[in-house]
Amino acid sequence: xxxxxxxxxxxxxVERRLSANxxxxxxxxxxxxxxxxxxxxxxxxxxxxxxxxxxxIAADLSPRSVSRNISAVRTxxxxxxxxxxxxxxxxxxxxxxxxxxxxxxFLSIEEVDRLLGCPNSVSPKGLRDKAMFELLYATGLRVxxxxxxxxxxxxxxxxxxxxxxxxxxxxVVPMGDKAINAIKDYLKSGRGKFVKTKxxxxxxxxxxxxxxxxxxxxxxxxxxxxMSGISTKISPHVLRHSFATHLLEGGxxxxxxxxxxxxxxxxxxxxxxxxxxxxxxxxxxxCHPRP
Length: 291
What we know:
Layout: H1 2-14, H2 20-37, H3 47-58, H4 63-82, H5 109-116, H6 124-139, H7 143-148, E1 154-155, E2 160-164, E3 170-174, H8 177-189, H9 214-228, H10 236-249, H11 254-261, H12 266-269, H13 271-287
Antiparallel strand pairs: 1-2, 2-3
Helix pairs in contact: 1-2, 2-3, 2-4, 6-8, 6-10, 10-13
């Protein structure tokens, strides 16, 4: 089984061209699957094996993680069928547990203003953090895209960024004047303080002169969230969710938001319409004289 998983991971990397983070998630899920099932050969797997697997992981993982695990195993067996290693996909008719999809957390416009106003625009670190937050809220980038963006991907004159997203799919996302000006200020007075002899061309640098890490940026945005007094637990994805929600509330087209977020399937984007609808209901109850 380990050899088959190695072949599958190579397929995902070379043929599907998935990102390193997605590959890591697949690897962890399949390792967990193998450890639970032991030495059962792929062709001998039956329904009870998968029920045992789901029961085992459901005790320790969130519903969302369980769904992701099931999806990883299902994709793995599709690969085995395509390679004629097994005749049929034992998960083809397997209907796993269904979990309600939670609505994404997002900030109000006033909370976003407070968060983006926190960084000290005098210090190099403050200029960098301000530019990162403004760009994240202006474009809805994933955190992995934000920390690895290079200077050449940002067009400050025409106001857009060129992103290579999941599955190596390229998209162009516009940004407004506030993000453009924040990046200009950072490039003029902040980035040079982080540059080292062997600095690469990443836009946002840490104290070592290399690209910001996911952990470093998560800590930064969490600390600023506390500093701003916002009760919602802040993460990079909360700003991404806020970007999408505020666009739709402002009348943006769902397809346009899908393209800017880099979602392959519009059903992924549609969750934000539920957020907007819920907000309308809440506003109606709060403001209508006869709710």
